[in-house]
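User: I'm designing a mutation panel for FAD-dependent oxidoreductase and want to avoid disrupting the core. Could you give me a predicted structure to guide residue selection? Please restate the sequence first so the numbering is unambiguous.

Assistant: Good idea. Sequence first, for numbering, then the predicted structure tokens:
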Amino acid sequence: MTEITRDVVIIGAGPAGTTAANQLKKAGLSVAVLEARDRVGGRTWTDIIDGAMLEIGGQWVSPDQDALIETIEELGLETYSRYREGESIYIGADGEAHRYTGDIFPVAEQTKAAMLALIEQLDVLVAEVDPDEPWAHPRAEEYDEITFADWLAQQTDDVEAQDNIALFIAGAMLTKPAKAFSLLQALLMAASAGSFSNLVDEDFILDKRVVGGLQQVSIHLAERLGDDVFLNAPVRTLEWGDDGVVAHADGDITVRARYAILAHAPVLYERISFVPPLPRRQHQMHQHLSMGFVIKVHAVYDRPFWREQGLSGTAFGPYELSHEAYDNTNFEDERGTLVGFVSDKNADGVFELTAEERKARILESLSHYYGDEAKNPVVYYESDWGSEEWTRGAYAASFDFGGLHRYGKDVRTAVGPIHFACSDIAGAGYQHVDGAIRMGRLVADQLIELARA
């Protein structure tokens, strides 16, 4: 048995946990990081699949993500811009592929006018919402008691406009049907990125990538921690009280500490037996948080053939199986990579198929954007985070309908010596690595202040 005594035990070695651990160590506090997986990085994961480097998890960096950008620079990592030269593709209700440039899809004039009006309305509402306290908005309860789908339908009867605007929150971000979450949850998602217009602008929200993969952030931060990181060590029991915590992990590891940070998705809190149990408020709140569901599809070709057609690789289709896709070619790679996404109910459906049937259906959808050559990749891989034992979905947890105004103010509330830090409870940078880093920094600062009191 390994028995360790530290100031802080951190559960989870993703960006939040490794950030918090490094900040605590710099302040002179001792730490132990317990990670359930056999790797660090959490929902960032770069791997070699059939000879191709794929970013299986999170990967993009946008210009508003100050905490992530600072960390990347401090670690000496390099970034490069996503390929975006040429025209994009949109497939609407007519099923035809339309080439276009700019941010607004090539739809009928009345649909375009409805979309622009919705974007303007949402930008006004989003500007009123503090992403750190959306529940504090004077109309929070009202906004949390109407689904995003119903709110869109109240603003316009143009169904294609509704579906296109819903796409940017439901399919692309929360990965849940727009009828499954509230207007308030949608406003939080947009406010976390600065505006709804930022979500519509893929050149902003999907701006850059890290050379070698975004997982390197956690890898480099973990390297600085050395032997204080323990892999394959899921915490099974966490005893807590006025005197601190005792964490019992696989591998006969026991850590006694003054404080604990749970630096992982809220849907995994239930995997830990708390002694004594967490308070009723936390039990109820955690039942109203759930992950979305999306398949990230990687298709690698001998060359980026779509560029020969004058295409950027960017594609959207609210009625397609793969509702969005991008050129995801690695830095200085001669081969070309497309990444597509299949979310919420569409993802449910394809997992009723065999692996080969699912692959054929998804590649068929990609071919609607790029032509038949898209059906024949040299490497094909599906990132299925819903099947990951220590993740259970993607990209992050969000509240069910009506849950945000009821419970949101307590998602970060410490329980005795137990503190919480992950992208799922961030304001700015919510559900992104940037948010994870912000939360890691925030909780570390809180514990440093407590330790010095």
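For picking mutation sites, this is relevant: The chain has a mean pLDDT of 97. The domain at 46-84+205-211+293-387 is CATH 3.90.660.10 (Polyamine Oxidase; Chain A, domain 2).
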